[in-house]
Amino acid sequence: MAALMLRRTATVLSSCAVAAGIVMAPEAGAAPAAAPTVTDAVAQGCYTRDGYPPDGGRNIGGNPPKYKWDHTPYVGARYASCGRTVRLYYGGYTNNTTHYNVRYAPPGGGWQQTELRAGAHMMWKFPAAYGDYNFSVQACNRGGAFQSSRCTNWSPQLYLNTR
Fold it and tell me: Which residues are bridge partners to 75 per DSSP?
């Protein structure tokens, strides 16, 4: 009786080993691995988040959505978790615009301002810190020598979560 039990256990174990080898040996006649796809990125937990204006603003569409007030540039933002990047989209002004001022508050920090180049449809890409960002944009025209810039009003403030 003990010999019969030992033989059955050996048969079960050897069957499991063969089945595991068939299931776990992808190099044995398997097709080459395909390039990652968008579906793969979603399966790996990648996602995007778009900014929105908590205090309002007119959605002028786009991908990501862009927002503005009358007589201001538009602003839109998107966070991509794979690559941990933020893309800030701004623009809408071409005539007499020499630069854009961008105010932003990074996670855990106060408001900062930077000057970015002019153009009708612009994008600023940078590595994202973990947390909450806020953005606002204005279009400006730098006058002649020793003159200050003349600028539009600020766009709606945009909130972007990068968690």
Answer: 67, 90
